[in-house]
Specification:
CATH architecture of the largest domain in chain A: 3-Layer(aba) Sandwich
Largest interface: A-B, 95 and 80 residues
Strand content of chain B: 25-35%
Shape of chain B: globular
Number of strands of chain B: 14
CATH topology of the largest domain in chain A: Rossmann fold
CATH class of chain B: Alpha Beta
Structural class of chain B: alpha/beta
Largest sheet of chain A: 7 strands, parallel
Oligomer: heterodimer
Number of domains of chain B: 1
Strand order of the largest sheet of chain B: 9-8-7-10-6-1-4-5-12-11
CATH superfamily of the largest domain in chain A: HUPs
CATH topology of chain B: Rossmann fold
Order of helices and strands of chain B: EEEHEHEHEHEEEEHEHEEEH
CATH superfamily of chain B: HUPs
Helix content of chain A: 25-40%
Distance between the termini of chain B: 65 Å
Strand order of the largest sheet of chain A: 7-11-6-1-4-5-12
Strand content of chain A: 25-35%
CATH architecture of chain B: 3-Layer(aba) Sandwich
Largest sheet of chain B: 10 strands, mixed
Radius of gyration of chain B: 23 Å
Number of helices of chain B: 7
């Protein structure tokens, strides 16, 4: 075994380990097997020990656990200081965080204190090499992310500072099936925080279960500004219901207030890869395409034959949504 | 009571309106082909500071780091009601990643000295990292509230703000000093005031080395600025090693222009027969149930 361990910052959502943390454990497992090392985790909270075997089932071999009732809710300074302490004590080679609101809140503080590189919102991670002048760095983390509004894909490295750190976009890495025979070593840790470190007081938390599960949907029917009138949007919803899909939307459509943010597909929303994606009245800006281009089949419906969405669609239908969708619904129902 | 606020802003290429000449054939960004704009969420940060000033009074100083041309966004800040503006510009800052950027901003904030709240836009549209705010807070040794969607309560020693979290929101209370990163949802930025545009449309920058208090505190309230301060590495007492490329642990290994797989799009005619054929084809492939 090498000592180039991969550490994952564990997040909780309504008392449960967040999906993104399990995605990261599975991704960390892949990286660790290339490095010949192990996956570790840092878990912070109050009364969370019973949740930890699940990390083991997905391939994490050791978790550093910090429990304190003052840590029950996420707060920036205490969480960042604990992650820094853990990194200094155990020297991981790579540290991964979910690119969630809280992951992106804590990771930069950690990187700043350790003067380490940090890459935001990665969509792919690889192990590779990089040379600077005459020196070749082997087995380093290649951090791959869209940049510049999604117009470019950048590969970022930080070979001269260890650990390499990245936040990773939710829903991009896959969760592999758990293996209930795997066990995890739970290491209870004592934090070094003082009362002054608890600078924030969380007065209220409102977290709803997501109103829609876009990530897991096999069929997504999405509305854009070309389907913004009441009748067209009603048809989009009816089509989704008919074929057993969920309703997605472009960012402008969500910004217009017709749907909640949970429905947004794209770079700043959810990344989806369903079997079928039906884009209704979506022009297909790069930020939107970045979140759905990997769908198995894409049908684009738009009145503008030059809309960029047609560039990545498998099937294009140019015309009026109010004619096309009823025809699709009719054709689908006819065969049942 | 009056609060001292510092707002950080950035001039960015307009990535939302990218034309085909925006990428060079080698896959790098052709910055010259892109118009520059005021980073959208930095306008929200400025607006939130102006709203706080409207409520309880105070002073707003805006900092930007960038090339000389970045004075444009500082002028815009003056048009909208900022009290003072500072450009940090030096070749030694070039090539900075978020760590080196937050270090330079920290040195500038410390030169200003007195502050209760630092406000940053949540993220800039050229990098979308959302890292500089929290890194600046860490370097200043102060607390942070990120993704702020509303400021609730204000007193002379603490602030209560609502922040967006995945699937909802939370209300957080913090003592001063604190750094906020502000989202587009927080407010609707006000327009420039015609009077201030007249007052400041020709204001230019001037390199200055004096301590901040001498030039700022003596000006008094509502006194018009006569120039935009420009500071360099030396005047903010920054260690050149920690600035720019040499202070940046992250390196760009490779840049690829996004070429989305141009699948052979099959044109389906908008008539009942063609659409029914498409639905049947997808059924046959078990794409549709």
């Amino acid at each position: 075994m090498s000592d180039k361990n991969v550490m994952v910052f564990i997040e909780y959502n309504n008392g449960k380990i967040a999906d993104v943390s399990l995605e990261l454990i599975c991704e960390a497992k892949k990286l660790a097997s290339k490095l010949g090392s192990a996956v570790t985790a840092v878990a912070i909270g109050d009364k969370i020990a019973t949740s930890l075997p699940l990390l083991g089932y997905h391939g994490c071999s050791k978790v550093f656990l910090y429990e304190d009732k003052r840590l029950a809710n996420f707060t920036s300074v205490p969480y960042a200081k604990i992650v820094v302490e853990t990194i200094k004590k155990y020297n991981p080679y790579i540290v991964l965080f979910g690119a969630t609101t809280n992951g992106r809140d804590v990771a930069p503080r950690v990187a700043s204190e350790l003067k380490c590189g940090l890459t935001a919102d990665c969509t792919d991670l690889q192990i590779g090499e990089h040379d600077i002048k005459d020196k070749v760095y082997k087995d380093i983390l290649l951090q791959i992310r869209p940049a510049f509004g999604g117009n470019i894909i950048a590969t970022i490295v930080s070979p001269e500072s260890i650990p390499s750190m990245a936040t990773v976009r939710e829903g991009v890495m896959k969760i592999s099936p758990p293996n209930m025979e795997l066990t995890i070593e739970i290491v209870k840790e004592e934090h070094q925080l003082s009362a002054d470190d608890f600078m924030s007081e969380v007065l209220e938390i409102v977290r709803k279960e997501r109103s829609v599960n876009l990530k897991g949907a096999a069929i997504v029917v999405s509305a854009g500004m070309g389907a913004a009138d009441e009748d067209s949007f009603a048809l989009v919803k009816e089509l989704a219901k008919t074929v057993g899909g969920v309703v997605g939307a472009s960012r402008p459509f969500v910004d217009s207030g017709r749907l909640e943010r949970d429905h947004q597909v794209g770079q700043t929303g959810t990344t989806v890869r369903p079997n079928l994606y039906i884009a209704c009245g979506i022009s297909g800006q790069i930020q939107h395409r970045a979140g759905m281009a990997e769908s198995k089949r894409i049908i684009a419906i738009n009145s503008d034959p030059n809309a960029p969405i047609f560039g990545i669609a498998h099937y294009g239908i140019v015309g009026d949504i109010k004619e096309i969708i009823p025809r699709m619904i009719k054709a689908y129902k006819n065969k049942l | 009571m009056g609060l001292n606020m510092i707002v950080t802003v950035k001039q960015v290429p307009d990535t939302h309106d990218v034309a085909s000449d925006a990428m060079k054939p080698d896959g790098t960004v052709n910055r010259a082909a892109l118009p520059t704009i005021f980073n959208p969420e930095d306008l929200n940060a400025l607006e939130e500071a102006l709203k706080i000033k409207d409520r309880v009074g105070g002073k707003i100083t805006v900092i930007t780091m960038g090339p000389p041309k970045a004075v444009d966004v500082l002028r815009d800040c003056l048009f909208r009601g900022a009290d003072d503006v500072v450009l940090i510009s030096d070749r030694k800052f070039a090539g900075a990643d978020t760590l080196a950027t937050s270090y330079a901003l920290k040195c500038a904030v410390e030169k200003i000295g007195k502050y209760d709240i630092v406000l940053c836009g949540r993220q800039a549209i050229d990098g979308d990292t959302a890292q500089v705010g929290p890194q600046l807070a860490e370097k200043l040794g102060i607390n942070q509230i990120t993704c702020v969607t509303a400021v609730k309560e204000l007193s002379d020693s603490f602030i209560t703000a609502q922040r967006a979290v995945d699937g909802g929101h939370e209300i957080v209370k913090s003592k001063f000093p604190v750094l906020l990163t502000v989202t587009a949802e927080a407010n609707e930025p006000r327009s420039p005031s015609a009077k201030k545009v007249m007052m400041y449309k020709n204001i230019d920058k001037k390199t200055t080395d004096e301590s901040y208090d001498e030039t700022y505190m003596t000006a008094g309230d509502n006194a018009a600025l006569t120039f935009i301060k420009e500071w360099n590495v030396d005047s903010i007492k920054a260690d050149p090693e920690q600035c720019g490329l040499s202070g940046s642990p992250t390196k760009v290994k490779k840049i690829q222009s996004v070429v989305l797989t141009a699948s052979n799009t099959k044109q389906i005619q908008n008539n009942e027969q063609s659409i029914a054929a498409l639905i049947n084809e997808l059924r046959a492939e078990h794409i549709l149930g």
